[in-house]
Amino acid sequence: MAHDSNGLRSVSAMPLELLRTPPPKERADAARNRAAVLEAAARLFAEKGVEAVSMDQVAAAAGVGKGTLFRRFGDKSGLAVALLDARERVLQEAILYGPPPLGPGAPADERLAAFLNAYFDYLLEHLALVRMSETATPGARYRIGAYRFWHRHVAILLATAPDPDPDHAAHALLAALAADHVAALLPELGEQRMRTGLLHLAQSAM
């Protein structure tokens, strides 16, 4: 965390817009193969469940070689990240340019509550995919570009609060939204109880 010339706290990170890396341009054949793979993976995951689908099944359904699939996506967690990308960008666009309170123009506490509600909805809808992307290897969650975007957004909102370290506070709040954590507690606590608890955590941080 940095301080400005007046001693006020500022969050030391690049602007939110710069954290949204546009996808690289592809050759036409590569783009077609990628679209076929993602379409096949989404269909198979929806029909059979993420855990039950193999990379071989995805390759066969997409009509591509296994080598092509592994070179492009690495493993099933790479597929999960690619499938989630478009869904994440919808939420990111709403945060950057959408109407308040999720978008700009509302007080920080209202924007934080709106983000947590919106992200929780997104997480519940894609829980198996997010869980796979976050737990493929130790610390995978924190290396995903989308996590840096969520963290930056929350830290900016928390910088208006009395907490002396909004960067740490943002990590602590986002820990309650880790997919593995949510998947483990959801059967016991239920959606509404978890949502209410999350918003209480946010209120205590503001």
Low-confidence sequence ranges: 1-10
Round the Cα radius of gyration to an integer and report it: 19 Å
Biggest beta sheet attributes: 2 strands, antiparallel
Helix content: 55-70%
CATH topology of the largest domain: Tetracycline Repressor, domain 2
Question: SS-based structural class?
Answer: mainly alpha
Please report the distance between the alpha carbons of the first and last residues: 17 Å
Query: Beta fraction of the residues?
Result: under 5%
- Which CATH class of the largest domain? Mainly Alpha
Count of strand segments: 2
Instruction: Give the CATH architecture of the largest domain.
Output: Orthogonal Bundle
| DSSP summary: helix tally | 11
- Gross morphology: globular
| Strand order across the largest sheet | 1-2
H and E order: EEHHHHHHHHHHH
Number of domains: 2
Mean pLDDT: 86
Key attributes of the depicted protein:
two-stranded antiparallel sheet; 68% helix; 206 residues; Arc Repressor Mutant, subunit A; mainly alpha; Tetracycline Repressor, domain 2; 2 strands; 2 domains
Textual characterization of the structure:
- By secondary structure, this protein is mainly alpha-helical.
- It is built from eleven helices and two strands; from the N terminus they run E-E-H-H-H-H-H-H-H-H-H-H-H.
- Mean pLDDT is 86; it is low at 1-10.
- The chain folds into two domains: 22-74, Arc Repressor Mutant, subunit A; 83-206, Tetracycline Repressor, domain 2 (Orthogonal Bundle).
- It has helices spanning 28-48, 55-62, 66-73, 76-97, 108-125, 127-135, 140-143, 145-158, 166-175, 179-189, 191-205, and strands spanning 2-3, 9-10.
